Model the fold of this input.
Amino acid sequence: MIFNKRPVTHNTNVKLVEMPEMYQGEGFGAMQLSKVVGLARKNSIWPLPFATSCCGIEFMATMAAHYDLARFGSERLAFTPRQCDLLMVMGTIAKKMGPVVKQVYLQMAEPRWVMAVGACASSGGIFDTYSVLQGIDQIVPVDVYVPGCAPRPEAILDGILKVQELVGNEDIRRRNSPEYQEMLRSYGIL
Ligand code: SF4
Done:
């Protein structure tokens, strides 16, 4: 039997996740619990795509093979709020739809993050009309805004990286802090 002897090539352009800062010594390593939890959380974000219009199509491209959101540990999309930790709102949100977005947000367990993808979700976009919500931050707190109409998949990936940065650096006690509780109260959530 004759085998085709093609040379095996390895991709050397692979970047590994940076190790968090830690105290290291002979046979031990110690680091903050927040850093360990942050590292695990940021690389396993489960998004809930709330797509109402054209920006959602860009998100479909972001999920497909070329841009491949799975590379960032976020391939597990779901429409089950209780199992997701990143609400991605993409598209025009009519005022009638506002309570639905808020209900989805309320059904998500803490810790949860929100990304407004595109001009419409961030500010109402070109639809400065009586029927369109002028930004979802009028009803739920937003962590990251992705600009563009429509944002390209690269911009959406950049938004995901920004969310990862927030998630990785968040103190595990932040959600119990008076400032966070006050912020939720300002949205009428507590
Ligand atoms: S920002 Fe532009 S592309 Fe995105 S939903 Fe609005 S109109 Fe469509």
Notes: The two ends are 72 Å apart (CA to CA). The mean pLDDT is 91. The first strand starts at residue 23 and ends at 25. Residues 53-55, 91-92, 118-120, 125, 149-150 surround iron/sulfur cluster (CB under 6 Å).
